[in-house]
Amino acid sequence: MFVARLKLPANYRVPPHTHPVDEAITVISGEFNIAIGEEFDEGETTALTAGGQATLPTTVAHFAHTDQETVIQISARGPWGLNYINPEDKSQIME
């Protein structure tokens, strides 16, 4: 098991991707807008605020964005990874 906290800037986009293991996300502060799907569509997202949680099963494609600085916590079992639906998205993300 591992837990990681990520501080995301305002207007940050996380392109559609999957993970090789189940993942649990908890919003620590700010607002994390997340949705299921293989194509990024901001209008489909659900806003999670502080204390909000989402559990994403293995290989379920999802994407997210922020409108304000946001801190999230990811909990999962390793080895963990990001598999972008569009491999070109990897070059646009700060990892």
TrEMBL record:
InterPro entries hit by this protein: Cupin_2, RmlC-like_jellyroll, RmlC_Cupin_sf
Pfam families named in the record: Cupin_2 (PF07883)
Cupin type-2 domain location: 8-66
Domain of life the protein comes from: Bacteria
Gene3D superfamilies found in the cross-reference section: Jelly Rolls
The protein's name in its UniProt record: Cupin domain-containing protein
